Fold these 4 entries.
Entry 1:
Amino acid sequence: MAVQARQRLLAAAGELFYSEGVRAVGLERLLEESGVGRASFYRHFAGKDELVAAMLDDYDAEYRTWLRARVGELGHEPLAVFDAVAERAESTAFRGCAFINTMAEITDPADPIHTRAAAHKAAVTDYLAELLTSADAKSADRLARRWMLLLDGAVVTASYLKNVHAFAEAKSIARADLAAQSPKPPHHASDGTGDRSRRRGAVSAPEVHTCRATPGTSFKSE
């Protein structure tokens, strides 16, 4: 029963905090939605902030496990990350990124809640670098940070436009990043040797000899 109470609290916290915000939901609301008594709550958590931190830890583990699995199903290609997250954003319950939302409310970088949310973003960035490294991308760490900006931008845009078109745009930019890393054919600057060769190999115009007719001689076409 104790484990069930903890799980009910975490489930209620995940749903309420995501849909309404961390600060907007009080302890009484959590207890009401979870069906857990106050005494039972304090047996599991020292307070609401500790519940928020535990909820983020659980969601971080669930999200990253899901992302790896879904990208694997889509071919384990780096660009598949954009397709996977776009699929998740198509849900009618989508309200943006829970970690971005939390950091927007808990702005102190030293706060344990903010720290956990930031750590999640760092872990996803590391996963992007892992995918890019496997694909032999150059400067994988730098590119992963850039792609994280694209992903977060697409998530935020999708949350207020209520569509996932931003992910296609982000993926297009990411694809261009990969294309830019493809080796380009070397460009040979002209050193003039070709022109000189052409001049040496050119056929001279035939010399025109002007003949003067001897008096009394006529020229006929043969």
Note: Residues 193-222 have pLDDT under 50 and may be disordered.
Entry 2:
Amino acid sequence: MNRDIIYTCDVNNTKNNFSRTLYLYDKKIVISSTKQDQTTNDAVQEQRGRSIDLSSFSTTISWIFNKTIIQGFQVSYYCRFSSAQKSLTYRGKAEDMKQLKKLLDCKVLYTDFNNDYLFVSSLHSKEDSEIQKYVQKATSQEKLVKKVNLKMNQQVSFQQLFKSKLEKEVNILFELKQQKHKSILEIEEIYKESNEIIFIMKYCEGGTLYNYILNRKYQIEQSEIKCIMKRLLKGVKHLHKLGIIHRDLKLDNIVLEKENDIKSVKIIDFGFAVEFGYQNIMRCGTPGYMAPEILNQQDYNELVDIYSLGSVFHALSSGQKLYPEYRDKNHLVFLNKLNKYKISSKIIDTEQRQLLLLMIGHRKHRPSASFCLKHQFFRQRSEIPHPIETQLKLLNFPTLKNPFRNQTGKY
């Protein structure tokens, strides 16, 4: 059992000031007075109030700060033996508490969000969620915050609503925190408050890929397209290797961590993500990016993500949508269901066009992310412009008159 211990430190129970030893495992915390007590089975430990299940959505931790220094924590959890929610408070050495928090990030839900963060501005809002910018008090670092509102009513309890809407997303994000990839923006912390779930991420200065294309006036160089698509495909390959389907890949769900740096592209927003075997015929995603089999409520697999990346690929390559002639949303859904796309005439590179057609083709012939990465399109070498070069191209320098030239054009 000791081989499974991730971390151990001494803590004091603030209620009786007794010294205890905290043992951190992958999915639980055991707080014991002796080593022998620590090896007692889970049932006895929980009955004593010393074994806490970190994977339970009833478990939350609130950190106790003195300015920017962590002094301890308060843990709230559901005890099966007393059938009640319990709360315990412990304090420890600042170095131990700092390390403990680092290890617990995205292993357990936190609470008291407003005590830890300062609001800066709102960036984007939807019906049930909002993207905002905050500053973390302890570090003064800017953070990207996604708040998911849980509309309460008398018929549905918080636990039922939370489990139905967010349990899968939280579990997937916990896993991605452990299995990191440079093309996926990892969640740093998750907070559970009375009527919302809050996801904390690193603030991305470059904004969304959609804004990047817009700022570049839809003129993206071939070398940039290859770099972006290669990184996105590697990120999707990683997701599929872990048995995760994103199901909502689009320009707005891809960000640049650094301004004008295409090498820093990251996949975000796992609100529609699901593990292999748990997908159903429910429609989810964004019309224009969705694989036709989802809209037609047919069985599907992870290759729906390849179709979505195909739509992103088309936008990068041409500055146009895959379904540019739709009249309204219903018409867009109709065209998307039939896969009546229109490839832009701006895409003239043979290899580029061939790969695109494979990605947005019929599901039976659609390639995997691994296959796409081996395509001839990515084997053609081309230089990637430096971010400063990219910024210079966006500047409109005025045309200056030559003072040594007369009106006839002669010097």
Note: Residues 207-382 form a domain with the Transferase(Phosphotransferase); domain 1 fold (CATH 1.10.510.10).
Entry 3:
Amino acid sequence: MAIQWRGPVPASNHAVGRGGSSVELIVDHWTVVMFEGAIRRFMDPASILSAHYVIGSDGRIAQLVSEDDTAYHAGVFSVNQRSIGIEHEAGPAMPPSDALYAASARLHADIASRYGLALEVGTTVLPHHAIVPTECPGTLDLDRIVREALEEDDMFTEEDRRKLNRVYDHLEAYEPLVWTTRLQRWLAKAFGGGLPNADLSGPDVETGQPFDAKTASRR
């Protein structure tokens, strides 16, 4: 999971440390404005607002406040001290996208694993409007986020997740054609080494012809 550091936000928009509190919950929001607009708002010293993370409709994740510090997102300072705030690029005119849900699920699962949280809407995962009167986070489906986070968490051990994150970050650095070719070659070698259930069907990304594991492994 690739996270881009876009902080720190101004001193007026967060508090250093958590005042002795530990992370007990996640508070979810929607931005209403576009991804970059939300970040500009949090970087404005006059806003006195921030969130730990902003997730884009394309699935990218930006971090603006360290998890060790208190972001000003929930509207109640004591809740801010005990929570991680996540903003989602969505609003009345921007329905939440599938990519956004997938990225949010991964982030929720990661946070839960690191802080020992049992993800549950209404207890450890709260909509902003559960804390103060607001429409936020609107139509954002927290049940879907938690469901997908739990499904992902069930699939992999922590060691699996660390390895997959390293692979994902490495592949993300390449254009799709390049990394898919590299991945196909790796799978071909793995298949030759004894992965009987490996499915290498599909076209060769270089030739467009049916994928030939033996040929690809010799390239």
Note: Confidence is low (pLDDT under 50) at residues 193-198.
Entry 4:
Amino acid sequence: MRKLIFFLVTLLGFATALQAQTPQTTFTEANELFRTKSYSAAAAKYQQLIDQGYRDKALYYNAGNAYYKANHIGAAVYNYEKALQLSPRDEATRHNLDMVNQQIPNNPEALPLLFFQQWWITFTQLFSANGWAVMSIVFSWLLVAAIIVFFFYPGRRAPAARIGMYAGAVLLVITLGMAALRYSEHLDTSSAIVMNAAVKAKAAPDAGAKDMFELQEGMKVAVLDHTQEYCKVQLVDGKTGWIACDNIKTL
């Protein structure tokens, strides 16, 4: 009888421990740590969830806030960028990212875009890859409905159904294309964030090469090429140089 009671108590304790370690509990604990201004501890809790494979806009956004308050600018920018990948139109994330970027010393500004380039970027970022995929499903059902009406209910509805078929087909192709584009951007590892301060960009992938310019923590770069140890990066203003790959974290 005592063994049975001991077993039940142990099982209950184990179940309680598992319950205490649920992702929602960890997220709540991190939020409470942030509220009490324990920013480094909060960031560690958020990072724990991210390392476990959880992907959520609120998780990345809160992690970015915690890292920023803990003065880890590179990690803050990285998490804000990840949040925007999942929710491109989130104004709070965009505002915080812009605010942090303005505080990075000598952070170059991107070359001005032509109006149609800006329009294209705005259009593609209306939704995430999942959002465009949902839109394509909606338009596929509308296309099917228009086809059914056109072929099985001829008469006055035929012209409207024909227009619906053409419009549905065009919109389906567009939304599928946007979903594929956004998904490819998500898989793209050519963008990265500088995670260390005062990183010297070299003229060649060699420690003894000439210094070209200096990168600051939090700067966003494009990775153009790499060797086993060095990555060739490009700033938004077009400058290129080689840095040790462990100084950056790909998005």
Note: The chain has three domains: 1-103, 116-187, 191-250.
